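Re: your question from the hallway

Yes, I did run it. Sequences:
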Amino acid sequence: MISLGVHRFAKELCFVLLVISTKALGISDAPVKRPMVYFHNTETSINNFSALKTSFDTFLKNHTPHTFQPIKKKETFEQKILSTDTGSLFILSSWHFKELNRKQYTLQPVLIGSSNGRHTQSVLLLSKLKSIQALKSKTIATSGTIDYATNILSKIVGKENQHLLNSIQILKVPKDIDALLSVGFGVADAAISTQDNFDQLFYFNRKQFEKLRPLGEAQDRIRILVAAKPSQVSSLQTTIAALKEMGQTPGLNKPLKLLGLDNFIQVEENVSKLLNL
Amino acid sequence: MFLNYLTSKSTITKAIFKKTTNYSFLLILLLVKSMMHSYASTSQDSKKEDSIHSQIVVLNSDNSIAKYHSVSREFNTIMEQHNIRLVNIDLAESSIKDTRIYELINQKETKVVYCIGSKAYGLAQKAHANKHIIFSSVINWSRFPVKDGSTGISSELGPAHEISLIKYFFPDVRKFGILYDESYNLQRVKQIREEANALGIDTLPIKITPGDSVLNALNKLTTKIDLFWLISDPTLLASNRSVQSIFNWSKKNAIPVYSYGDVFIKYGAVLSISVDEDTVGRQAANLAIRFITEQNSNIPIQKPAGSKISINLCRIEQYATPLNEKALGSVNRMKTCSGKF
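Structure:
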């Protein structure tokens, strides 16, 4: 009886030790992949990642299991889209979204950003110069990536002036406001800016606002949007609803303000057309 | 000859001069040859040819200093995109002799010398070479001569840039208070007054001298200003006690403080605006390309075009200072009441 008892005790002890050791080594638990909200914006070079992460995570932890992850490099962001299998969301510019869809990345827009009650905005080329032709060999300030700026410029200068693009120097600055001010201070000859930010210039530097005139405009560009893999959209409804709620609740909208938005709204059919879906 | 091959691409420091083995020499030789082949096959127009046959000597006063490193990294990235050869020399790491640096600067293919920091700029001037010199991160650059064909980016944002951004965040601010020692900041305060006036803002500057009570001077501003502009002034910031007295006075009277560096955010400044060093590197790169491709020798000295912004939302809420929420999209760093900074 005694030997049987000892034997049983020894077996149980071994089992307990095995459980403890495998737990300690992390063998028994599969690695937990947290769902993420990835962010990358081709339309601004501002490094506000720590502020964005803190404010988004503070909001998200009370509503969803998702955590926020800003990504600096476009290539890394695109890699996340390809590799993610954990029900993640992606916040990106509509320009980038369209580019990805052309490259056969299949993303579905689920929410779009809105500011001043509008989900589209115009992008302007502003300068003290009098004509597009005067841009030859000049410097243009932009807060977007070089690809984004080249795309906008190509549309604005038109087919007949594409040759100008080879002579133009692009100066990347952190934000539209810097781009606009750099023209006034003689660092650049023209600036790419959203209509919204140009309108703001009127209030804080009216003299410079009055010196700048639009040389061209890219109209009806959809603001930042939230997208997901189509197969995962139905399982993401809680997080999508939380992101929508963010702008409707006073005191919770700071993360959106950091993105230059008032709220995220539902994607309507006309938006799908603008995104060439 | 070896040096010419080495300098054909990107970053070179004295360490490379010293440590390169025969194997790495062969590898570099092959790499450079293949690069030179690709240069030859892809160059289509004369501007690209100019770039390929041009060399830039980059003198960095100390690449271990974060802001110098940022500037250098951005400059190098753009130059590599334009296939312009670079000779990078980190003056803090390298034991390369000054005479060798003068030789590199005076080489025929060197078209531009880019100097990061005062030490580098001073050294480049001693080479007495007829080359374009670009400087950045040089404190008080006006103490150095700037010869024809040279230019640079100053180390401080222009007051108009700062005032515009202060108005952007706080549209209701109408009057700034400033304390300054005229032996250090007479010109700076004059510029701030002129630029502020042009943008519809009054200023109330008060002179201080060493030994004056900072608190007494601040008390003369209470009730007369909407915002206190903390400038970099050795007399005003002579001790930690002075700094504390500024922020204690600010809190007691609910007068927001604007400062030039985000270190003051944790003390209680509501807003700080400083230079974005990455943009400085990109500006320098654009200037270098202009010198090489346009044969332009008359380019004015520029102000930094990019800014970094930090705000203290906690203090803003405590002071009830009206904030333009649209401006939050331009913020780099943000302190909240619950969060660390």
